[in-house]
Structure formats: structure tokens, C-alpha cells
Amino acid sequence: MRDRRRAETVHEIKVAALEQLAEGGPGGLSLRGVARAVGMTVQSLYHYFDSRDALLTALVVDGHRALASAVQEAAEASRGRAHVERLFAASNAYRRWALANRAAFLLLYGTPVPGYEPPSSEEVVGASAGLAAPFLEVVFDGWSAEELARVPVQPGAERLAAVDPGRVPLPVGALALFYELRAQMHGFVMLELVGHLTPMDSLAEDLFQGMMHRATDQLAAARGTAG
User: Which of 30, 125, 134, 136 ranks highest by number of CB atoms within 10 Å?
Assistant: First the structure.
């Protein structure tokens, strides 16, 4: 009973913190304000989070895990379907999570919170890396190891050879291609999230789907070259 009550209180604190971030932006979070929102004193809140940074780190970990879970679910649900359908399903899950959880997404990828730097702890790094696996599965669905190895390394990407292969298990050319495609997807989502698609706001999903069709063509061309 006590553990459940504590979990409920932690959840209330996190919700209040995200609401403050949504209303006040990256500099709008204060423990005093969060404590007031959940009806407790700051001293009581310290029993759950001993600092503002501890609370922010918990929100960062939660955000990365929830976003990765949304993409993973879409990847699993689309397994066996056409490549373009899988790519759109997974990437649109990313987009829709961002739109539905704007404050959390901007905490992960938007303007940094003043004075806060996410720690390089195993928990934070592991949570942030969790997004790579479902996207790797979808982007290179059906590719053989030989095809991945034959993706050419474009000029400027040579230094990616120094990246630890244990972090992203791809040959250099395929690694560069993967990040290029992710950057396109993420860039579109950020533009939509901060209101820079005007006057195409109502057509955002159609534009996004078209972009995924082009990405699929790009991958097919790269695979054909590699083959």
C-alpha cells in the first residue's frame, strides 16, 4: 500500500513538472511550484526528489523510454508489411508521440533547461539509446549483412569509422545513411511541433507520409547499389 501511494505521488509530481515546463518553457520549472501544484511543502517533495536536477533526470528517462516504446510497438505491429508502410508506421509513431507529449519531447530534444545537463549515467544513456533498435529494424528491414557493408561511404562521413560499433552496430556507410534519414524525420517533427509548417499545418501528416515514401525510395536505391 505504501509503495503504491509513493508511486502515485511520484507520478503526480512528474505530471506537475511537465505542466510547468509546458507553461513556462525550459526555464519555468521550480520545485517550489511543483510542490504547490501537488499540495505539499518543498521539504516533503525532497523525500521523492532531492533536487530539481533529479526530477528533470527522471523526466528525461521516462520520456526516452516512452518514446522508444511507442516506436517499438509500431515496429512490431507493422512487421511483415511493405517496407514503406513499416517506415511510415514507426516514424509516425515518433511524430505522434512528440505532438501528444510536447513538453516531454522538447525536454529531450528542444532548448536545454538552464543549468541542467542530463548525467551520462547508464540509466540515462540506456534509455536514450533504446530508440535506435526499432528504427534500425524498420529502416534496414530485410537487408543482409553484406548489403549493409556495401553501402558507400559518402565524402565527409569517413570519420564515422571511429564510432564504437557496439553503440550502433552498422558499417560506416549504412550508419551515415541511417542518421541522415533520422535527421530528416526529426527535423520535420520539430518544425511541426514549434509551428513552422504554416500554412501547411493541416496537411502535415500527408507531407510526412510523402517524405517517408521518398525515404523508402532512397533506401531501395542504396540497397540496389549495394547489391
Answer: 134
Determine the Cα–Cα distance for residues 2 and 206; give it in Å rounded to an integer: 48
Under the banding of pLDDT at 50, 70 and 90, the label for residue 127 is: very high
Which domains, and CATH codes, for the chain?
1-50 (1.10.10.60), 59-226 (1.10.357.10)
Q: CA 225 to CA 223: how far, in whole Å?
A: 5
Q: Is the pLDDT of residue 39 over 90?
A: yes
Q: How many whole angstroms separate alpha carbon 14 and alpha carbon 24?
A: 15
d(CA 38, CA 13): 7
Q: What is the pTM of this model?
A: 0.92
How far apart CA 131 and CA 105 sit, in angstroms, is: 13
pLDDT confidence of residue 26: 86
Where does residue 154 fall: left (phi above 0), alpha (psi -120 to 50 degrees), or beta otherwise?
beta
